[in-house]
Structure prediction request, 475 residues.
Amino acid sequence: MTDHWSLITESPQEECGIIGIFAPDEDVARMAFFGLFALQHRGQEAAGIAVSDGNAMSMYKNVGLVAQVFKPETLTGLQGHYAIGHTRYSTTGSSLIRNAQPFMIETMNGPLALAHNGNLVNSLQLRDELLRQGVGFSSTSDSEVMTMMLARDAGATWEERIKDAMGNWVGAYSLTLLTRDCVYAVRDPWGFRPLCVGLLPGGGYAVASESGALRTLGCEAIRDVKPGEIVALSSNALTVTQAVPPVSPSARCVFEHIYFARPDQTWDGVNVHAVRQKLGEELAREMEIAADVVIPIPDSSIPAAIGFARVSGIAYNDGFVKNRYVGRTFIEPTDSLRKRGVGMKFNVINENVLGKRVIMIDDSIVRGNTTGPLIKLLKNAGASEVHVAITCPPIVHPCFMGVDMGTYDDLIAHKRSVNEIRQMVQADSLVYLSLAGMMRAVGRSDGYCQACFTGTYPVPVDVSSAKTGFERGKK
Ligand code: SF4
Prediction:
């Protein structure tokens, strides 16, 4: 996505959605399209689908939303029984067409395509090693490093080659891989990113970042791809291999529950919508503020506001109407429209806030670009007080596992107290949910990465390997 809407896309950006399909009697490209369409919220910069018919592989990818990239005739040109797809938000490597996925190459073992959700923390070292061995790269993405490592591996089968490579990869990777006659689903041993597989109603299997995308395709019997597993989709039965032992405790990204995933996502038995309601309930228990109305920032904060209202006894109402499509255009706004900032995306329902003490629920504050302007919109509409309640603790550390939160300097809570942030955004009060409250809402005290709140990373991180590290390295 071009960056002229950056002022109104303050939330942390998810890194990618992936899909894989084996369906012998279906139009797999069309199925992959609708699967990606259901994963559009995970990345809006580029999309691609690669397909194999058992002999030849073909692929199409471009910059844009899924529905902008694929036309009916594009999909008709992608024939086969096996498909993988990707919708991208840039993580490692900037947002260029050459970084769009899947990555497809010809190897000595036949064609290979890869779609990746996550970020390797040791990709710079791995890339330097390959460069020294004479391997060239066409992009700046860690996903191409993974593709090249698989292409060069000496293992006898694709399972062996994937297993070998997994031994060298450190960080977050949920992958779908396409070979001439198989789709593989692979999840890192820490389990950072979700990945699940389901049975298609007409026969065959599909794998996707979120269970909601599988249900869009009519899948039944959905199960998670477990940390460290390789799942092969190529015949009537799934072949599951525990390629590397799972790391204990695992490190599922807790932000999937707070913000990224669709509310219909169920991950390791935990439903996202239920967690968000409980986040709101926990906030209400920790916050003692008299108010007349609770309003969410749509969409991700709606369940939390419902939970908050239920526990606090303060009435829930809608305060903002969101234009869900404004950031999803490549048409650049005029200067005067750009100056309207969040006002281009949110309108206030004046009647619902006029003269009222408002509690505004939001999922997170990252850079702090939008909180102040949203408070101003409410006050301009006549709210007498605006209290801000956030459904997670302050984000004080960047993410190296594939979520774009910027650098330390970008984070408003880095080196600032809650009261300093409150003054900056001009809220009457500001409350963050405690770490313990957040984990109570998730329902488990461990097994989750919380590094952006605590600074305790589940894997060793190197600041120079952060976003666009490759480009910096080349200069
Ligand atoms: S640092 Fe935060 S955003 Fe990144 S994986 Fe961990 S919990 Fe998720």
Summary: Residues 192, 253-255, 399, 401, 403, 449-452 surround iron/sulfur cluster (CB under 6 Å). The chain is about 30% helix and 25% strand.
